[in-house]
Design a protein that fits this description.
heterotrimer; A mainly alpha (61); B mainly alpha (166); C alpha/beta (646); A: 61 residues; mainly alpha; B: mainly alpha; 7 helices
């Protein structure tokens, strides 16, 4: 199924602002969104995308 | 540019989220929903500019309440508010109004064509600092208003007895 | 891809729906008008259509409420569709005894014409048929203007539903579930040595969670009590009024006071609205401000600021071979010009000063305007105060005359007011976010919700770190943020798109006053070229706009859908109906319109002139819950329903 251009545009602008994320993550994120919109996803897909996110784990108080 | 409210201003005007005067009575009157956070800021700002006194940035809230430019209803006033800022700064810094070079330098320092507020970054920051002193004055001379009507009457009275400083 | 409605059937349902079979033909006409008197199950039919299309789970009470009589045990509703020329029938089976409901599909490819359980539709279509969207093409015409109502969010909900943005937001729950799972898993594999520390952290976290639950409960309780109390206050006022009004003379005074109070509120509202508008313009706030602005402007002219020659002029000049005065520009001259150029202002600096100068010169303010408005406002407030005293006087007179009930009511009212004030203080203590206030009231995470939330975050973070799930939790937050940002941005883009296409349509049809949608917030905000914010469109205009919006929205769906509408024009006058009837038939593809006989005038009549593509049905009650169906325009015209004008 084709993704509506509005979603694509939204993805482009959101990912452009997501500094420090790898291309791998960005690709997975786009794929996830597309799967979600067609109700064609499971928890494992979400987990995989989460795991490819770059985060800084700062010191805890 | 980022407008930042003085600490305590939200409480003074009884803001509950976007709705003003919400805390002290039933939600019947709709005056609260017409009065914006920016209106509160603006009322403080005018008082501070009038007194030509700036306050400390530590008395501002942590985050801006409005990010880029004036709300719709204030867009036409940008140049005038910029004008009031220039006037206040010239007074505060005791610039001789006939010193052409100095006046020009101040204006160049404060203004910026490309900004939606027509102000440079230092200019924008000064607005917030003027709002701090304006709010101080408001707190000293007015009771916390219950509703828009009482606020308008009280605020107007403040200006009636305003002392023009020069 | 196209969906068309070819008919439906009811069995053993109440209203006029005991045994109804509506046939729109295997190649349905573009427009179908069904005249169906009120009470014949129109609303039920629309509901059944929506439920069957969306596959809604029906509570037992709802199922039983459809029962035709005590003798029938089962019932059925069937909707017949053409999906890209393939006939398909969706059925809703109802068992009235156990209150259960099930959905079935009969399609051409089922062997032996049998049926399969469930709604077997193409996946894309099934995704589309969610409640928020289905409500818009199986449409209750009386709700059309609700689309315009900003306080209800049907317009934005419809867009979100149509484009699946709601499914995106559901990812949030999956993320939270995954993080929770991870925490559970991690805590179960921790070594005994670490376990003690972790147990302590877990206990600390549970402590805050318990506190949070308690605070939330307190908050809810206070808010509920506050709402009830305010209602109670109103009721007491009414009782006091009633009591006072028992005396006819006093009643007249009270009515006068109430009337006057309403007027004062309205006038005060007017004054304060206008005063706020004036206040928002600095030159009008006080003559001193106006004077300063004008003086500054004057000074700029006097000082000849800004000068008109810009830095850019000199820079460009330095590139020339010959100066404007005619002399050649060599290396030394160029250097001198560039050095001197810096003394001049850049072009954009000149522009901004000029802009300001212009604004200052044009600034004017009528100092009396604000004074007048505030003075008027004060008068109103004083009047209001006087009225209150009047009312109090009436009350105390009666009490003095020995009216004990009135005295008690007054005391109850005072006590209630005090209680409400205390409650408001409680709510403030529970909810204030202002650090200064929190310090002043000596609040901590045990007593204040925002502080409790913050503490919850801190302790969760510590536990996560100890159990090494911190990273995963942060990844979860980050993903949620990105999904939300995407969904929000997409909604903005889609809103703009639907606005533009609706406005296109409107510009074609609204020739006299150009009303447009300014933006789609919760509902639709209008503007016209005559006023910036159009709040008072006529009923006919509002309906046209709502239908134009629906068309634009539905046109974006991957399937063309039929537009089934109940009472498209019942609540507007005949002239507006004609207006609507001219416009909306061409908006949609297949349209099925339920009308009552009183809607013929102005609306249905407008179809009579079309020679083809219109089908007319008239459904007439026969008694015993059955109905007779007549096809054709003559029966349609002749029918006298209970609502038709005699």
């Amino acid at each position: 199924m084709n993704i509506d251009p509005a979603i694509t545009e939204a993805l482009d602008s959101t990912l452009a602002a997501a500094k420090g994320q790898t291309d791998d993550f960005k690709k997975r994120f786009r794929t996830l969104v597309s799967l979600v919109l067609t109700s064609n996803y499971q928890d494992a897909d979400v987990r995989r995308v989460m795991e490819s996110l770059a985060v800084t784990v700062g010191p805890e108080d | 540019m980022s407008f930042i409210l003085p600490k305590g201003a939200r409480d003074f005007f009884g803001f509950d989220g976007p709705r003003a005067f919400a805390k002290r009575g039933p939600a019947k009157r709709e005056g609260g929903s017409r009065f914006l956070l920016f209106d509160a800021y603006y009322c403080c700002l005018l008082l501070g500019l009038d007194a030509a006194r700036i306050g400390d940035t530590s008395l501002l809230e942590g985050e801006p309440f409005l990010a880029s430019g004036y709300p719709e209803t204030y867009k036409g006033q940008a140049e005038l508010i910029a004008g009031l800022l220039v006037d206040a700064e010239l007074r505060r810094l005791h610039v001789d109004i006939d010193d052409r070079e100095e006046v020009e330098r101040q204006m160049v320092h404060l203004l910026n064509l490309t900004s939606p507020t027509r102000l440079s970054t230092p200019g924008d920051e000064l607005l917030n600092q003027y709002a701090v002193t304006g709010f101080d004055r408001m707190q000293e001379e007015m009771l916390e208003p219950d509703n828009l009507e009482n606020f308008l009457v009280g605020y107007h009275a403040l200006w009636a007895i305003q002392s023009a400083t020069d | 891809m196209e969906v068309r409605l070819t008919g439906w059937r009811t069995e053993n349902l109440r209203g006029g729906l005991r045994n109804l079979d509506i046939d729109l033909g295997s190649e349905p006409d573009r427009w179908t008008l069904i005249q169906m008197p009120n009470g014949m199950g129109k609303t039920t039919t629309m509901d059944l259509m929506r439920w069957t299309l969306t596959g809604r789970e029906l509570p037992a009470a709802t199922v039983r409420s459809l029962r035709a009589d005590d003798h029938v045990t089962k019932g059925m509703f069937e909707i017949r569709l053409l999906i890209d020329d393939t006939p398909i029938r969706l059925q809703l089976d109802l068992d009235f005894r156990d209150g259960s409901a099930s959905y079935w599909t009969v399609s051409a490819d089922t062997r032996g014409g049998g049926r399969r359980e469930g709604r077997k539709l193409p996946a894309e279509l099934r995704e589309l048929l969610k409640p928020a969207l289905t409500e818009l093409f199986v449409f209750n015409g009386e709700l059309a203007t609700q689309i315009l109502d900003l306080s209800k969010s049907k317009a934005a909900e419809a867009i979100r539903s149509l484009y699946g943005l709601d499914t995106l937001d559901a990812v949030t729950e999956r993320v939270d579930a995954l993080v929770a799972q991870e925490r559970t898993r991690a805590s179960s594999v921790t070594r005994a040595v670490e376990q003690k520390g972790i147990t302590q952290l877990q206990n600390a976290l549970d402590e805050v969670k318990t506190a949070k639950a308690s605070l939330d409960k307190q908050h809810r309780g206070a808010v509920t009590r506050l709402a009830k109390g305010e209602k109670e206050l109103d009721r007491l006022d009414q009782e006091i009024n009633a009591r006072l009004s028992e005396d006819a003379g006093v009643r007249a005074e009270i009515e006068l006071i109430d009337q006057r109070h309403k007027e004062i509120d309205a006038t005060a509202g007017e004054f304060s609205t206008q005063a706020l508008e004036v206040l928002r313009r600095p030159p009008h706030v006080h003559p001193a401000l106006l004077a300063r602005l004008q003086n500054l402007g004057g000074k700029l002219y006097e000082l000849k600021l800004p000068e008109t020659i810009s830095r850019e002029f000199f820079r460009e000049l330095s590139d020339q071979k010959v100066c404007v005065c005619g002399r050649p520009i060599g290396h030394d001259e160029r250097k001198a010009i560039l050095d001197g150029a810096d003394r001049f202002l850049a072009q954009d600096q000149i522009s901004v000063i000029n802009q300001m100068k212009l604004a200052l010169r044009e600034s004017k303010g009528d100092p009396d305007e604000l004074n007048r408005l505030i003075s008027g406002l004060q008068d109103q407030l004083a009047d209001r105060q006087r009225l209150k005293s009047e009312r109090d006087r009436l009350t105390s007179e009666r009490i003095a005359e020995g009216d004990e009930i009135l005295a008690r009511l007054g005391q109850d009212k005072d006590a209630l007011k005090r209680e409400l004030d205390t409650l408001r203080e409680t709510v403030e203590r529970l909810t204030t976010r202002d650090p200064a206030r929190q310090r002043a009231l000596r609040l901590g995470w045990e007593t204040n919700v925002p502080l409790c939330d913050a503490e919850l975050k801190v302790r969760t973070g510590r536990l996560d770190t100890a159990t090494k799930t911190r990273r995963f939790a942060l990844q979860g937050e980050s993903l949620k943020d990105l999904v939300k940002a995407t969904s929000t941005r997409a909604l903005d883009i889609l809103r703009a798109r639907v606005t533009a296409s609706t406005n296109d349509k409107l510009s074609q049809i609204m020739k006299t006053e150009h009303i447009r949608i300014a933006r789609i917030g919760g509902g639709l905000e209008l503007r016209s070229d005559q006023v910036a914010s159009k709040e008072n469109a006529s009923e006919g205009q509002k309906l046209s706009i709502a239908y134009a919006f629906l068309t634009s929205l539905l046109a974006e769906a991957p399937y063309r859908l039929p537009f089934i509408v109940d009472s498209p024009a019942v609540s507007i006058d005949v002239a507006s109906r004609r207006e609507i009837a001219q416009l909306i038939p061409d908006f949609f593809g297949q349209m099925v319109m339920f009308v009552i006989s009183s809607e013929r005038a102005g609306f249905a009549e407008s179809f009579y002139g079309r020679k083809k593509d219109v089908r007319y049905l008239t459904i007439m009650p026969q008694g015993g819950g059955t109905a007779d169906i007549q096809y054709g325009i003559e029966a349609f015209k002749d029918f006298h329903g209970p609502e038709s004008v005699a």
